[in-house]
Amino acid sequence: MPLRRTLLYLSQQPGFRKWAETSPVARKLSSRFIAGSTLDEALSVCRKIRGDGITATLDYLGENVKSLDEAAACRDMYLRMLAGLRESGLEPNVSVKLTQFGLDFSTEACEENVAALVEVAARTGGFVRIDMESSAYTERTLGIVKRLHARYGACGTVIQSYLRRSAADVDTLIGKQIRVRLCKGAYLEPAEVAFADKADVDRNYLRLAERLLLEGRYPAIATHDERMIASARRFVANQKIAHDSFEFQMLYGIRRDLQTRLVQDGYRLRLYVPFGEAWYPYFMRRLAERPANLLFLARNLLRR
Ligand SMILES: Cc1cc2nc3c(=O)[nH]c(=O)nc-3n(C[C@H](O)[C@H](O)[C@H](O)COP(=O)(O)OP(=O)(O)OC[C@H]3O[C@@H](n4cnc5c(N)ncnc54)[C@H](O)[C@@H]3O)c2cc1C
After folding, report:
1. What domain range includes position 188?
2. What are the tens digits of pLDDT across the range 255-267?
3. Ligand 1: which residue has its CA nearest to atom 24?
4. For the packed helices 226-239 and 198-215, what is the interaxial angle rounded to 10 degrees?
């Protein structure tokens, strides 16, 4: 936990960012988690994993854009992604971050940008997952999700088990039958809002997973943690929950062994497939999650 927090803190320092963005080693390591820089490259990854029995949610990397023009350009890219997925015979399923759609500038403009996608998704049998960012955005994100869901359906969001408020949010989302992806949470948060102890985060994860599996609408159990997965599998078996009423989700490039095992055992699995040039914040969160990734980076730096 302290290493994770240190890395997340460092990643926000401009000097460190500049170093990482120009480091060929960081770029090389980031390619393990990122499905290329263009939409065509990402679509070909989605087609390939589909062949392995795995579905995808496509993410165009980027967050905290600097203007509403930039946000509109991201919206247009997402419209091309939905069309590209459909034309490739794949489910039009995307994941978006609201700060990429202008949330730092205007809640209304951001909501209309995302509405354009959800409207298309609703017409074409697709789905828009609204990712959850740091706790500074949680309330506004849930507000937008609830309004867009009431207007179109075809969208859902993410709940982070490290947040103290999450049990109440899960109840509300179940009440509105809004689809939830459950994850542990990837941002640096103060102890007032988030559990600092990993054991508490994990305990809450299991509690919320069970609640969602029993009463949620097609929940997504998003984790690479073998203990969380084993526990969810046991719960599903004991409660006789159908395998097509939920899915597991993992990040592209992480724990491929576990991914294969789940598919072989007859579970639904969706991968979060990010692409694009704005890889730095996404990459730093992945680095912080696993010290071994950092060791790999350090070894390569020393070798140069
Ligand atoms: C599909 C999906 C969508 C997500 N969306 C969001 C979101 O919207 N908002 C948000 O805050 N977070 C999101 N996350 C990230 C999540 O919050 C966690 O930070 C991340 O999944 C790591 O937690 P874990 O559950 O895998 O468990 P951990 O306890 O962190 O890890 C358990 C084990 O998983 C493996 N592992 C985990 N991370 C890595 C890694 N980076 N590299 C290699 N191995 C690893 C290791 O074996 C590790 O021991 C998402 C995660 C997934 C899978």
Report:
1. 35-278
2. 999 999 999 999 9
3. 223
4. 30
